Amino acid sequence: GENVEQHPSTLSVQEGDSAVIKCTYSDSASNYFPWYKQELGKGPQLIIDIRSNVGEKKDQRIAVTLNKTAKHFSLHITETQPEDSAVYFCAALGNQFYFGTGTSLTVIP
Amino acid sequence: GAVVSQHPSWVICKSGTSVKIECRSLDFQATTMFWYRQFPKQSLMLMATSNEGSKATYEQGVEKDKFLINHASLTLSTLTVTSAHPEDSSFYICSGKGSGQPQHFGDGTRLSIL
User: Fold this and answer.
1) Sign of CA dihedral B54, B44, B107, A14
2) For residue B108, which residues of chain A lie inside 8 Å, CB to CB?
3) Would the pLDDT of B7 be above 80?
4) How many CB pairs under 8 A join A and B?
5) Helix (H) or strand (E) segment spanning residue A75
6) Does residue B47 sit in helix, strand or coil?
7) Band (A74; pLDDT cuts 50, 70, 90)
8) CA dist A54 to A51, A67, A97, A106, B8, Å?
């Protein structure tokens, strides 16, 4: 089956700086890679996703890059704000969704 | 955007009772529903996958007689934790997926068993 690894597990950045979270996957058949933001006591919310036929996707301050050859994809958040503080999960879709272990992001005002 | 409503958001009950959690897709037809369990500071663990009108497929180690899943319609799935015990206390999250759509999550149900 698929194995999704996510790094780092915790990340602290100053407000206004960029944050980068990386994930690797093992199943070359995986073709869809969403990123979810989970705030305390809530369910994960989809923030951006990318399909395997695209190398990069951007939505305002959030971007995702995908390297199919190396089997890794990354979430980039620019100009971070305190409200970006949350736990972020990557996922890879093969025959089912496989989630990364999560990154707790803290944006320091 | 697509919305999944999960109810209740928090439930506290005595050991030995059964608890039902509802998951509804409000503006799309969820042909597949997923149920996850999440422990504090951990990732989501898939418990089972259900397709509308079919029996749920449970992940290894998940007791199907304890965690009863019903997906009788394209907009509603329920998870019933039977004879709940303190070790069943957790955060349960459902997710719905329609044809050609990404997965959308409910806001979770915090289950506390006394």
Assistant:
1) negative
2) 41-43
3) yes
4) 41
5) strand A72-77
6) strand
7) very high
8) 6, 9, 19, 29, 39
